[in-house]
């Protein structure tokens, strides 16, 4: 007989903390081409990250599916009505849209200003369809020819698509009422992107701007199935919690193996995703590391860092490049780029994200609370997708 469902313990600190470290990986992916250009000796370190570390994004999707299901399983067990659904969407939007609009406004102003003096800023996009898709969060729904404006927004757009389907997805996941059903559901969900891209290709364009929805939807559902497993069975989650560190090490090893074999590191996700399940048990050394004050703060500002780091790298590269920082000065250039990432993210968090979120949420009454909504509100990750800061891999 299965054990009774696990009761919510509120905030799962390690699921907040891991967001910051995943964001560091995303930043490293996009910093890689600039760092290699400034200091060619860093190529052995940055090239594998540049080409294979995009798997951090997919773990973000798993994490998001896990905490959204934890927070809203009671709300969307059946259709809650348009009012509750609208408040849910508004709450999700408030987490990133203020920073998104602020960064987009800066980019548009910079592009127009540069064109006025006969210059062109990379990844500018056009002022028509490209800009409209950014504003309406549809740039990650597929069919695009390239990443434009603030490229990483494609992943927020893809996750927004998942949010729009929550009234359909949640009841489906809640039908999984046994351990076996949840495990099978998890494997099928992971198979959605793996099978799809095995057929149409794992190339950068396909998995980012041409057809990214199988990637987002599949791994989001995988996370939802893991959370449902927590509710219907205690043995497997408890077992995973006892081996959180080994699971993380095994997942990293599979990523390294995939990169060595020159196959998509996305194939490692069925194992890597189990880290989310294990961390949900809140035990072990890895949980303690991810629950420190520094880790938690990194998780809190991860959205702002994610939305500002690529525009900063692109803009700063006009001044910080091999011509202006030749030879050993390139190390200083890399340091300045990294400091700028942190400063821009912190400023966006303090000056835009938090005030913007408070303002948006003040405009509507809070949505009806699910029994474990506090988990979702404090650990939900919308960060999500690396976009190459140069002409290299855009994953």
From TrEMBL:
Q: Which domain of life is it from?
A: Bacteria
Which residue ranges does UniProt annotate as crossing the membrane?
A: 21-47, 53-75, 96-117, 158-176, 183-200, 206-226, 238-258, 264-280, 301-320, 332-352
Name of the protein in its database record: Peptidoglycan/LPS O-acetylase OafA/YrhL
For this UniProt record, give its keywords in alphabetical order, as a comma-separated list.
Membrane, Transmembrane, Transmembrane helix
Q: Which residues form the Acyltransferase domain?
A: 15-348
The keyword Metal-binding belongs to this UniProt entry's keyword annotation:
no
Q: Does the keyword Repeat apply?
A: no
Region ranges (Disordered) = 366-395
Name of one Pfam family that matches: Acyl_transf_3
GO terms, biological process = lipopolysaccharide biosynthetic process
Q: Name one GO cellular component term.
A: membrane
Q: Which organism is it from?
A: Actinomycetospora succinea
Cite a single GO MF annotation: acyltransferase activity, transferring groups other than amino-acyl groups
InterPro entries with a match to the protein in the record: Acyl_transf_3_dom (IPR002656), Acyltransferase_3 (IPR050879)
């Amino acid at each position: 007989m299965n054990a009774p469902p696990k009761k919510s313990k509120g905030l799962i600190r390690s699921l907040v903390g891991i967001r910051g470290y995943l964001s560091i990986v995303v930043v490293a992916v996009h910093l890689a081409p600039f760092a290699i250009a400034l200091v060619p000796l860093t190529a052995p370190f940055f090239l594998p990250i540049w080409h294979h570390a995009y798997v951090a994004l997919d773990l973000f999707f798993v994490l998001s599916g896990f905490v959204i299901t934890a927070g809203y399983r009671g709300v969307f067990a059946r259709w809650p009505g348009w009012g509750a659904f609208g408040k849910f969407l508004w709450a999700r939007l408030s987490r990133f849209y203020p920073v998104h609009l602020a960064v987009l406004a800066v980019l548009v102003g910079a592009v127009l200003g540069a064109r006025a003096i006969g210059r062109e800023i990379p990844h500018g996009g056009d002022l028509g369809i490209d800009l409209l898709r950014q504003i309406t969060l549809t740039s990650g729904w597929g069919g695009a020819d390239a990443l434009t404006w603030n490229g990483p927004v494609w992943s927020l757009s893809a996750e927004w698509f998942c949010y729009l389907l929550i009234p359909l997805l949640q009841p489906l996941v809640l039908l999984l009422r046994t351990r076996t059903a949840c495990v099978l559901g998890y494997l099928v969900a992971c198979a959605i992107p793996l099978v799809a891209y095995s057929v149409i290709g794992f190339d950068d364009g396909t998995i980012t701007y041409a057809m990214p929805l199988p990637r987002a939807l599949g791994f989001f559902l995988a996370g939802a199935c893991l959370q449902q497993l927590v509710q219907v069975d205690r043995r497997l989650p408890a077992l995973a919690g006892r081996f959180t560190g080994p699971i993380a090490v095994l997942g990293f090893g599979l990523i390294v193996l995939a990169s060595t074999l020159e196959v998509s590191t996305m194939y490692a996700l069925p194992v890597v995703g189990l880290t989310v399940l294990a961390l949900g048990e809140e035990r072990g050394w890895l949980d303690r590391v991810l629950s420190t004050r520094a880790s938690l703060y990194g998780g809190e500002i991860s959205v702002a860092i994610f939305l500002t780091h690529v525009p900063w790298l692109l803009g700063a590269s006009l001044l910080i490049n091999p011509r202006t920082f030749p030879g050993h000065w390139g190390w200083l250039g890399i340091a300045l780029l990294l400091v700028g990432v942190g400063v821009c993210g912190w400023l966006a968090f303090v000056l835009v994200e938090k005030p913007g979120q408070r303002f948006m949420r003040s405009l509507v009454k809070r949505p009806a609370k699910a029994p474990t909504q506090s988990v979702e509100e404090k650990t939900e990750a919308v960060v999500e997708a690396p976009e190459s800061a140069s002409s290299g891999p855009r994953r």
